[in-house]
Structures are given as structure tokens and as C-alpha cells.
Design a protein that fits this description.
The structure is a single chain. The two termini are 36 Å apart. It contains 12 helices and 16 strands. Helix 5 links the parallel strand 9 and strand 10. By secondary structure, the chain is α/β, with parallel strands linked by helices. It is elongated and about 60 Å long. The chain has 2 domains: 186 residues, Nitrogenase molybdenum iron protein domain (Rossmann fold); 155 residues, Nitrogenase molybdenum iron protein domain (Rossmann fold, 3-Layer(aba) Sandwich), CATH 3.40.50.1980. Strands 1, 2, 11, 12, 13, 14, 15 and 16 form an 8-stranded mixed sheet that branches. The protein has a 5-stranded parallel sheet with strand order 8-7-6-9-10, with helices on both faces. It has a 3-stranded antiparallel sheet with strand order 3-4-5, with no helix packed on it. Helix 6 packs antiparallel against helix 7.
């Protein structure tokens, strides 16, 4: 069963365990077993200087063209009033460019912080304000944080636009709409291409479409560079493991990260996040094992357990811990997660 924090983030993102990477790899932890002793080394330094695009990678092969939110106006320059269809299929009309925005998902905390002036954000998530979980915590100081989506808490911020995820309690969404406040719901967070689409859609809704296009273009460029650096003909098998015994299968953010980083997901036969037995992990025999930092005890237990002693990643000391914020981002920072995993994969290719 996921930890409390992971359950909260599951309600936040659908994919609780996928987190991204900062431009500096602050606190990547590599665990290696020497006999019966485990050494945990904290590596400091720059991440891959150019994190990059996907051409030639598995992600490039599966990447689909990005669709914008459907708008009644088709010009490249957004004008208001604007009517769009959000990702949940609801029509949303925004009378003017929003200047009091409530972000009730950590993903939109990070996306909006790159699109609009910080003064335009009147509400963000409490996770977005915590450096352990957010890349933009320093930007969000002084902005009110909310830990759960309640109509009263959101309306009290007097927003002129609210960003929510589609799993939010329908009654809460209805109350906000009945108060005359536009609500835009996001639904998809399970791949890099879906995250890119979210950025473009959010950019359109807040009147910052060109800026959103620039962010996505930058992501693609960095992904291309990562893919180019990763092309060696070898695609090691990689498994992302989360407490107590979950693996990231296909249709998860981490699956997309592994593919873009030049690896093959050892748990690709699994759909979504599913519990996995020790026997299955041994059979899948990943060459690299990834964990979040909060799962360090799980990783340590696996390193000591005779049940996993034949797994290649355990035998070869290629078990890596990723900072918690690096495994949960569903914003532009997902590319930094790809850079981190590509670097970890690179240890096998040397």
C-alpha cells in the first residue's frame, strides 16, 4: 500500500510516484552494497547539461501530436472573453485575462509559475510550497496554500479562474461554478506528451499561449539532446519500485521517463501502478532499480534480502534513490527527471 504522502499525491496526480528533476542534482542518492554494509552517497553537481528531446528514443516513437484545448477563437493571440472545452469535456468561459488564479494541483503550481506573474496566483497547494516536493517552492512564498480542495477555501481566495483535477469531488466543483467562478479541469498526467499538452492548454486559458509554446519547445529540445546522448544501441531494463510493493507499469509518468531516458521498463507488462511479488521482480530481473528517497528503507531491505540476491540491479549495485520531488512532478520539470534517469542508466553503459 502506498505511503500517506504517496496517497495524497495519488489524489493529486493519478500517478503518485512520478517526480521530476531540478537543473542541479541536489541530493541524488546512490545506494551500493559492499558485503553486508550499505553505503549511501549523496552526489552533488549539475545534472546533464543539456537534458533533451526524444528523437530516436522510444518516447519519440510513441509521441503523438499535441492538441490544444478547443477554443471558440482560433487566432494565435488569445483574446477574451474566451470559451474553451477543458480536458474533462466541460465548456469554460473566461470573461477576461485571469489575474487572480487558484491552482489546486501541484502540477499547475509548477506550470503557472512559469507562465504568469507570481502576483497573479492567489492560491496554491501546500505541496507546491514545500521544497521537498516542489521545484517552485521558493517562488510561492507568501501565497496562501491549500491542502485539500474545499469549495469554501477556494472561494475565499476570490479567484477569477480555478485549476482543478477531474478527480475533485463533483460537489466542490459545482459549488465553485455556482459562485460564478470559471473552473478548468485537467485529467491526464501519465506521460510526457500529456504533460506537454497540459502546459499548452493552461497557457491558452491564461492568455500566455506563446510562452507555453516556448516552454514545450524547450522541453523537446532538451529531450532530443538526452536521446542523442543515450543512443548506444543498448537499452537497459529499468524498474521503478514504490512502497510497499508497487511497480510503475505502462501508462505511468515513470514509464514515459524511463523510455525517454533510453531504458526499457522491466514492468512494461503491468498496466498502471500495480503490486508486484518478489518472484515477479526476480523474473523481470531489472538491470537498474529506482526508488524515491522516501522509500530508502524499502530499497535497503531489498538490498539485504536473499529473495532479491539474483536480481542484476542488486548484484551490480545499481540501485538509485531519487529525491521525492523528482519522482512526482507533472510539469515541465519532468525533463529533469528524464535527465537524472538517463545519467543513472549511463552508469551501466560505461
Amino acid at each position: 500500500m502506498p505511503t500517506h504522502v504517496e496517497l495524497c499525491r495519488l489524489a493529486e496526480f493519478f500517478d503518485p510516484y512520478g517526480r521530476a528533476m531540478a537543473n542541479l542534482r541536489k541530493g541524488e542518492i546512490v545506494m551500493a552494497r559492499k558485503g553486508k554494509q550499505i553505503t549511501i552517497a549523496v552526489l552533488m553537481g549539475a545534472a546533464l547539461a543539456a537534458s533533451a528531446s526524444v528523437s530516436g528514443s522510444a518516447y519519440a516513437q510513441s509521441h503523438h501530436s499535441i492538441a490544444y484545448a478547443k477554443a471558440t477563437k482560433s487566432s494565435s493571440t488569445v483574446t477574451f472573453p474566451l470559451t474553451v472545452t477543458d480536458e474533462a469535456g466541460n465548456k469554460v468561459t473566461i470573461s477576461h485575462r485571469p489575474v487572480r488564479i487558484a491552482s489546486v494541483t501541484e502540477g499547475t503550481d509548477e506550470i503557472l509559475s512559469a507562465l504568469v506573474p507570481i502576483k497573479d496566483l492567489v492560491l496554491v497547494t501546500t505541496y507546491g510550497k514545500q521544497p521537498a516536493y516542489s521545484f517552485v517552492a521558493s517562488k510561492l512564498k507568501g501565497i496562501r496554500g491549500i491542502s485539500s480542495a474545499t469549495a469554501e477555501g477556494i472561494i475565499a481566495a476570490r479567484p477569477d479562474l480555478v485549476f482543478l483535477a477531474s478527480y475533485t469531488t463533483p460537489g466542490v466543483v459545482n459549488q465553485i461554478r455556482q459562485a460564478g467562478i470559471p473552473v478548468y479541469e485537467l485529467t491526464d498526467f501519465n506521460s510526457i506528451s500529456q504533460i506537454e499538452q497540459n502546459i499548452l492548454n493552461v497557457g491558452l486559458v491564461v492568455g500566455k499561449e506563446p510562452k507555453a509554446r516556448g516552454i514545450v519547445a524547450g522541453m523537446k529540445q532538451r529531450l532530443r539532446l538526452i536521446a542523442k546522448a543515450a543512443t548506444s544501441g543498448r537499452k537497459p531494463t529499468v524498474m521503478y519500485y514504490a512502497s510497499p510493493n508497487y511497480v510503475a507499469g505502462k501508462n505511468t509518468t515513470m514509464n514515459s521517463v524511463i523510455l525517454a531516458a533510453g531504458g526499457r521498463n522491466a514492468a512494461a507488462a503491468v498496466n498502471g501502478w500495480q503490486p508486484e511479488t518478489a518472484e515477479a521482480v526476480v523474473k523481470q530481473n531489472p538491470q537498474i532499480l529506482l526508488f524515491s528517497q522516501s522509500d530508502a528503507k524499502i530499497a535497503e531491505a531489498m538490498l539485504h534480502s536473499p529473495k532479491y540476491s539474483t536480481v542484476a540491479a542488486i548484484k551490480d549495485h545499481r540501485v538509485f534513490l531519487l529525491p521525492d520531488r523528482d519522482t512526482g512532478t507533472v510539469s515541465q520539470y519532468i525533463v529533469d527527471s528524464v535527465a537524472t534517469v538517463a545519467k543513472d542508466i549511463g552508469t551501466l553503459k560505461k
